[in-house]
Amino acid sequence: MSSDETHVVFPAGELRLEGLLRRGAGSRGAVVCHPHPLYGGDMHNPVVATVAQALAEAGCSVLRFNFRGTGASEGTHGRGLLEREDLLGAVSFLQAAGADEVWLAGYSFGAFVIAQVPAGDLPPGQRVLVAPPVRVMDFSSIHRIEGLRLVVTGSLDELAPSDAISAALSGWNEDASLEVLQGADHFFAGQLHRLGAVLARHL
After folding, report:
1. Could you tell me what percentage of the chain is helix, strand and coil, using 3-state DSSP and rounding each to the nearest 5?
2. Which pick of 50, 54, 71, 149 has the fewest CB atoms within 10 Å?
3. DSSP letter for each residue of 3-26
4. CATH number of the domain bearing residue 179
5. 73: domain range?
6. What string of pLDDT tens digits covers the 203 residues of the chain?
């Protein structure tokens, strides 16, 4: 948690979830979704923090939060399906705080959750997927991701291989860019500064 973030609690259906909110000056908000909670993922993940920082520097009010059953968030893990309700709750929270445009960014499992939510359930805004795990999670039913602007993965990422992402990208959104960080693995170990630079360039 950085000094300019505030701990918040917001509803998602019947559950209450925790998050960290950094307020920006404008009316654009952004939600950042974390990697798989059953493998240690939460809103404090270093990649999540890097993405949140890049979005804040782009002028967004940024909310990173814990999915159900993670940290102090209520509920139990929903296999990526029930987490869609968590994401919608986070978006509604930002809208109630004054955001008229909401960007979404997700890392690994968080990218999978974002990709599943129909555009009609969301306000306008860009989408950013970091290391979407196409090798281990089922993206086959995802045919269109409205607003998808950028996908980032590492050249050494076995869970989100660039060739598989490239093959799917035209179906997700033909206007999206794919950035492959040479030498980066799924965790962007030692590469967070380069990831931040890529995000800053696109955002």
Report:
1. 30, 25, 45
2. 71
3. TT-EEEEEEETTEEEEEEEE--SS
4. 3.40.50.1820
5. 6-202
6. 677 999 999 999 999 999 999 999 889 999 999 999 999 999 999 999 999 999 999 999 999 999 999 999 999 999 999 999 999 999 999 999 999 999 999 999 999 999 999 888 998 899 999 999 999 999 999 989 999 999 999 999 999 999 999 999 999 999 999 999 999 999 999 999 999 999 999 98
29 burial level (CB within 10 Å; 0-12, 13-18, 19+): buried
Q: Is the pTM of this model over 0.90?
A: yes
Segments of the chain assigned E as strands: 6-12, 15-22, 28-33, 61-65, 101-107, 127-130, 148-154, 177-181
- In a domain, residue 106? The reply is yes
Name residue 32's beta-bridge partners.
64, 105
Tokens of 182: 């040479």
